[in-house]
Amino acid sequence: MKEKRLISWVITAVAACAAAPAGAAGAAGDYPRRPITIVVPFGAGGSADVYARYLGDRLQKQFGQSVVVENKPGGGGVIGTAYVARAQPDGYTLLVMSNTQTVNETLLKDRPYDLMKDFEPVAPINEASLVLVAKKGLDVASVGDLVALEKQKPGELNYASSGIGTPYHIAGELFSSMAGTKVQHVPYKSSGQARTGVAAGEVDYMFDAIATMQAFVDDGRVKALATTGKERSPVFPDLPTVSEAGLPGYEANIWLGLLAPKGTAPEIVATLNRAIGEIAGDPQVEQQWRKDGVSPMVMDPPAFRKYLQQDIERLRKIALDAGMVQQ
């Protein structure tokens, strides 16, 4: 009886040992075998949400598996980011990030994750400059007018953002720092709410992604003053850059990327990287994105890791120079 139990135990153990590596290899080699969830740690309607859904739709067609986009906003992107950091590293829960996450490495000391330790960089998605817009009732027609009004009324004007640490917040702080003015920051829960706030006249101005603010400019709900890139935007070619319009050297942007939880198999990371690279490199996609003022980004995982680290350092300097954190 004991001998039968021993033989049975040995057979079970051997089968388990044989199945484990085969299952692990299959999990990576057959990826994806079930639906993928892409978590957006921001509210609906923003740039990250828009392009996560675009990416999800294209990945679904490539993989033949459902790709679900789930918004988990809150805490300046921390809630959704922490959720993915704790997820199983199996490639089925992914994070769309922006430069919010890279600046939060400096701004938020008590965040429950470390970007470079708790995630596998998968691939960048795209980048874009921003547009500076003012409410219709604000008596300004240019960057120069806005700076003059801020100096005339120190601390009285305000600007909207989608939360602390977002690209729109950084753009606003960099603007007032370089202009030498004092302005109040009004953080909303999402960029959609901030956008609506400016259009409704609740706040004086904001920096926003061109793709999501363009309709508000085109139908006259807000006044566009400038864009924030090194060069003029093809979407608003008649608008000067902020640098051209009176703050030489000013530059701000928003970029998006995809991360996976730490420990995700390299084969899965490589599969996702190739798929996203194919999407970003598609001429039709590139043409459509450039109409939105968006440029595709393509890098392999090691290059994207280096880019993340460099962006953390770049934004740390901006945050320190703007007085957003203590040195």
Automatic annotation (TrEMBL):
A Pfam entry, by short name: TctC
Signal peptide feature range: 1-24
Listed CDD domains: PBP2_Bug27
Top-level taxonomic group: Bacteria
Keywords: Signal
Family per similarity comment: Belongs to the UPF0065 (bug) family.
PANTHER family attached to this UniProt entry: BLR1237 PROTEIN, TRICARBOXYLATE-BINDING PROTEIN
Official protein name in the record: Tripartite tricarboxylate transporter substrate binding protein
Organism annotation: Bordetella petrii
